[in-house]
Amino acid sequence: MRISERAERIEPFWVMEVAKAASQKAREVAHTDRPVVFLNIGEPDFTAPPRVKAAAQAVVASGQTQYTPALGMDALRQAISGWYAQRFGVQVPASRIVVTAGASAALQLACLALIDRGDEILMPDPSYPCNRHFVSAAEGTAVLLPTTAEERFQLSAAKVAAAWGPNTRGVLLASPSNPTGTSIDPAELARILDVVRSHGGITLIDEIYLGLSHDDQFGQSALALGDDVISINSFSKYFNMTGWRLGWLVVPEQLTPVLERLAQNLFICASTVAQQAALACFEPESLAEYERRRAEFKARRDYFLPALNELGLTVPVAPDGAFYAWADCSAACQKLGLKDSWDFAFAALQHAHVAITPGRDFGTDQTARFVRFSTANSMAELHTAIARLKAWLQP
Ligand SMILES: Cc1ncc(COP(=O)(O)O)c(C=O)c1O
């Protein structure tokens, strides 16, 4: 069977190889005193809070599960608009909000609406692997620009200006980022926007981890910087609803009917059950629970980062959000005679029974030196992981 060039261009997730090995190991050592600690998974260990679960049960029982409008339920778009005002002090009318099946569908819609064959989109190396594939699926080309720790592993205005070529259509940023947990400095972001605007380009910014920001300096939405910014968001991370498949994007007013047309044809609508349930996310009781969990994520980071650094797994830029630590394992590799972060990840699994993600999926520049730790696990598991890594690395 002939497979489309488009499909052939999409690379496999290497991280799944590690995940498979981790599951195999987990089965082998499940009944020992050293079961595998999973720090490779990019999703919250929490699930939807009680009122959201109850709302989902109620809507299923009521049978009110027909399609919703393609742009999403009006009440949900209003609730998201209210959240922007309450949490970030930014006015985003519901008419600019498009509800989707997760940030993934939001990214697909944005790319399909704005990218033509041959258009180039600038993005940082390292970055979330699917983002370059969304661009590629829309027949565009993702251009990964190497970043440095000084740049917080984010693009800078100077870099965007220097890389802008005749086919460049815009930038796709993520703040805070996966895999680094670092955000773009707001002043730098304003300068990037100036560069993009000077070329008549587009700015797509993935703010899926913005709800899990731990630092007021960085915790502002890029939507405050202008109505031309396209922001992608989700119920997966801050709202702890990964498998519910619900997200949204905020677009300039004139794009809403375009996305409506695409969404009608490609998806009809996002899950009705998930949308109805998500209304309960914005009730005071749920919001209080989400804030409690955000504090827990911060506490985990505050424990885990110094502990990693002490092990010589240096995290060059402290993450200000999300639940990741992007650690340089090159010194440890040298000491242990390991080739790169890929081998390090497998060795950590073998020797410490700790599952982590090698840098390979996230780019090509320095990713052979870096591994990603996810701190979306209990404090007890994080303590166990550090103790095991210490016994392995500093016997
Ligand atoms: C940076 C980033 N963007 C988008 C997504 C996709 O999220 P969703 O579950 O909302 O589709 C993820 C998931 O891990 C992510 O890390």
From TrEMBL:
Pfam family name, one? Aminotran_1_2
* Cofactor annotation: pyridoxal 5'-phosphate
Q: Signal peptide: which range, if any?
A: none
Q: Which domain of life is it from?
A: Bacteria
Enzyme class of the recorded protein, top EC level: transferase
GO terms for biological process, alphabetical = amino acid metabolic process
Q: What is its EC number?
A: 2.6.1.-
What UniProt keywords are attached to this protein's entry? Aminotransferase, Pyridoxal phosphate, Transferase
Q: Aminotransferase class I/classII large domain: from which residue to which, for each copy?
A: 36-389
Any one GO molecular-function label of the UniProt entry: transaminase activity
The text of the family note is: Belongs to the class-I pyridoxal-phosphate-dependent aminotransferase family.
Read off the PANTHER family from this record. Answer: AMINOTRANSFERASE, ASPARTATE AMINOTRANSFERASE
The molecule here is called Aminotransferase
Q: Which organism is it from?
A: Limnohabitans planktonicus II-D5
